Amino acid sequence: MVDLKLPEIKDLTRIERIGAHSHIRGLGLDDALEARNVSQGMVGQKSARKAAGIILQMIKEGKIAGRAVLLAGQPGTGKTAIAMGMAKALGDETPFAMMAGSEIFSLEMSKTEALTQAFRSAIGVRIKEETEILEGEVVEIQIDRPAVAGAASKTGKLTLKTTDMETVYDLGTKMIEALGKEKVQSGDVIAIDKASGKITKLGRSFARSRDYDAMGPQTRFVQCPDGELQKRKEVVHVVTLHEIDVINSRTQGFLALFTGDTGEILSEVREQIDSKVAEWREEGKAEIIPGVLFIDEVHMLDIECFSYLNRALENEMAPILVVATNRGITRIRGTNYRGPHGMPIDFLDRLLIISTQPYTEEEIRQILYIRCEEEDVEMSGDAKLLLTKIGYETSLRYAIHLITAAALACQKRKGKEVDIEDVRRVYELFMDVKRSTQFMMDYQHQFMFNEIPEVNDGSAMAE
Ligand SMILES: Nc1ncnc2c1ncn2[C@@H]1O[C@H](COP(=O)(O)OP(=O)(O)O)[C@@H](O)[C@H]1O
Ligand SMILES: [Mg+2]
Question: Checking DSSP bridges between strand 320-325 and strand 351-355, what pairing results, if any?
């Protein structure tokens, strides 16, 4: 395997549903890394956000490898939200891989393999490639239509110019199709990648700015390029080590990247890739970008995983590990010992700990307000007040869930705005944990669950 295959440029558009954290667009920090009160969808939890911002700064500078951060706090205090904020703030270039602790038990591979894949998904390789491109203004496109309809191949000529020269190129069927697809016309300034044949429209030439035809309001005007038509250009793309692994693993096609069905990847493959990447780094062709691996509900990992993490963090290429948990002192999986957050002491010792605090009523009000906007729900002031009260007394998540439910109740009565009655109605329809627990206590003799012996383990930090 001398030539490593690299994935094609990722150009997938995602249709996003409104997820639990879709309102989070960053950490909401100012330039001095101080948390703004309400910004980028983030409310309160300032010291945790600021701490996360400092970690981000360390990641961006790219100097440190293998640090680990623990977000610890009660359920619903925004641990996952902060991790999502970090991901957004990092931008597209820096890889951010995310998994839940329990995932490693459900994949069809060993736990350490799953963790290795997760680690390598969080390590980016920025690869520089030189390509040759043709860049110029289209003078003329001339296509010779074959005399017989349906005859095999079309041919044609493309005339391109810069301010200094003009050249005519022969066109094959593929290029003709590509030009048609991009709707290239004379007067456009285009770039053609010589290796792949990919055409990019850079804009319309200023010389044509007086033409009336074929101009939308978004037409961008550019200067006709100068110098040679043929130029060398450096293109940079970022792929993760895991992507390179999958594509080069003979047992799995690259489609495995989409299905996630990657199976185990041979360690020889990884070794070869690592040494190739090291070679590229020495030649100055590639750079390592350590990203972030976020493991939510980290108490679900067992002792083997923790020991793997200890080792993996010492690797020179290791990403920044961010883990989150809502557990207090509880059993470490795979052992009979208890540890803070369900983690062994030697692993804990490596962590910088960020703790999240419960929200004030005002903060809950603001988060609910943002969620109403996000879910496109109009709600009266009174209803919001009641919802805030509910959020404060029960839980933030419960209150967030009631937003959609109340909106549906409102829709059903053909109302325009969710009001206090709708909220009250869904509050009665759907129970929060406290009321549900109370119900169970009152009627437990009618259920079968008292057959299970009492375990006092894995108790959440809350209450
Ligand atoms: N500071 C915050 N600003 C805005 N939304 C928040 C904030 N904290 C939590 N949320 C939202 O509240 C809900 C519960 O928070 P979550 O991050 O899932 O809690 P945790 O992971 O700590 O259990 C999510 O929808 C989350 O996006
Ligand atoms: Mg969470």
Answer: unpaired
pLDDT per position as a tens digit, 247-275: 887 665 555 555 556 677 888 888 999 99
Centre of ligand 2 from the C-alpha of residue 83, in Å: 9
Q: Tell me how far the alpha carbon of residue 337 lies from the centroid of ligand 1, in angstroms.
A: 31
Residues constituting the chain: 463
CATH class of 128-235: mainly beta
CATH 3.40.50.300, the chain: domain bounds: 38-122+291-355
Which segments of the chain belong to CATH 1.10.8.60? 361-442
* pLDDT score, position 1: 41
Residue identifier of the C-alpha nearest atom 14 of ligand 1:
76
Compute CA distances 235 → 132, 136, 182, 398, whole Å.
10, 18, 21, 48
What's the pLDDT score for residue 10? 47
Q: Quote the pTM value.
A: 0.73
Which residues of the chain fall below pLDDT 50? 1-2, 9-14, 458-459, 462-463
Q: Whose C-alpha lies nearest to ligand 1, atom 4?
A: 42
CA nearest 101: which of 296, 260, 292?
296
Architecture of domain 361-442: Orthogonal Bundle (1.10)
